[in-house]
Design goal:
The chain is mostly helical. It contains ten helices and no strands. The protein has two domains: 11-17 and 24-81 and 156-246, no CATH class; 85-146, no CATH class.
C-alpha cells in the first residue's frame, strides 16, 4: 500500500534552497517517503485496531509494512532516478554524434532555436557562432533547448536511501505507543495516542511539503492530514468488518 506523489520539480527545490542546509537537495524525497511511511503504517495500525488484534500482532504487521513497503518505494525511487539519468546520457551521446557528423544540420537547429527566441540578422549569427564554437556548450544547448532535458546531478542511490530512511523514520511514529506499551507494560488508549503522534507527523510533513512546493502552508497541512486520516478511517472500518466476518 503506498501513497506515491510526483517528485518535486527542480525549480521548486531551488526556491527552497538555503532553508534546510545540505539536506535540501533530497528534501523532496524525504517528504514523500515520510508521507508514504506514516500513512501506510498508520493504516495498518488502524485496521489492526479495528479488527481487535493483539498488540504484538499490530507491531509485527507494522514493522513488516515498514520494511517491505519502504524497500519497495526506495527501489522504485532509485530505478526511476537511474532511468532518468541513463536516458539523459543516451540522448547526450546522440547529440555529440550529430554535432560531429552532421554539424550543418545541428547549426541550423541552433539558429532556429534562437530565432524563435527573437534573435535575427547579424546578432543571431554571432550567437550561433559562439555556441557552436565549443562542442560541449553546443551539446548542452541542444539538450536543454531542443530536447528540454536537464541533467540530474544527484546520485540515484542517495535518492533511494533518503526515501527508505524517511519511510522508516516517519513511518515508525504510529507504532511508538504500541512499542512502549509492549516493552514497559504501561500506557492506555494506545490508538488515541498513536492518532495524536501521527497527526503531529502529518502536520510537520504537510508543512515541509508546502514549503518546498511554495504553496499555501495551511492547505498543505490539511491535505496531508486528510489523506492520512481517510486512509486510517477506511482501514479501521475494513478491519472491523473483516474481524466480524471471520470471528
Amino acid at each position: 500500500m503506498g501513497v506515491t506523489e510526483k517528485p518535486l520539480h527542480s525549480e521548486n527545490k531551488l526556491q527552497a534552497k538555503g532553508k534546510f542546509g545540505r539536506f535540501e537537495d533530497y528534501l523532496g524525497e524525504f517528504v514523500y517517503g515520510g508521507i508514504d511511511g506514516s500513512v501506510t503504517t498508520f493504516a495498518v495500525v488502524a485496521g489492526s485496531t479495528g479488527a481487535n488484534l493483539d498488540i504484538s500482532i499490530i507491531i509485527i504487521l507494522g514493522f513488516a509494512n515498514l520494511i517491505a513497503d519502504g524497500f519497495s518505494m526506495s527501489v522504485g525511487a532509485y530505478l526511476s532516478a537511474k532511468s532518468t539519468r541513463d536516458n539523459y546520457e543516451k540522448n547526450r551521446q546522440v547529440e555529440y554524434w550529430e554535432v560531429d557528423n552532421i554539424p550543418e544540420k545541428e547549426r541550423e537547429e541552433v539558429r532556429e532555436i534562437y530565432r524563435e527566441k527573437g534573435l535575427e540578422g547579424e546578432l543571431l549569427e554571432q550567437v550561433v557562432d559562439v555556441i557552436t564554437a565549443d562542442r560541449d556548450r553546443w551539446v548542452n544547448v541542444m539538450m536543454k533547448d531542443e530536447l528540454n532535458m536537464i541533467q540530474e546531478e544527484r546520485q540515484p542511490w542517495k535518492i533511494g536511501a533518503v526515501t527508505f530512511g524517511s519511510f522508516l523514520l516517519v513511518g515508525l511514529i504510529p507504532l511508538v505507543a504500541y512499542l512502549f506499551n509492549y516493552l514497559s507494560g504501561f500506557g492506555d488508549n494506545l490508538f488515541l495516542v498513536s492518532c495524536i503522534f501521527t497527526s503531529t507527523a502529518f502536520i510537520i510533513i504537510g508543512y515541509l511539503k508546502a514549503t518546498i512546493n511554495q504553496t499555501n502552508k495551511i492547505k498543505g497541512i490539511l491535505e496531508t492530514v486528510f489523506l492520512g486520516g481517510s486512509a486510517a478511517i477506511l482501514a479501521y472500518f475494513v478491519g472491523g468488518i473483516l474481524e466480524k466476518m471471520f470471528s
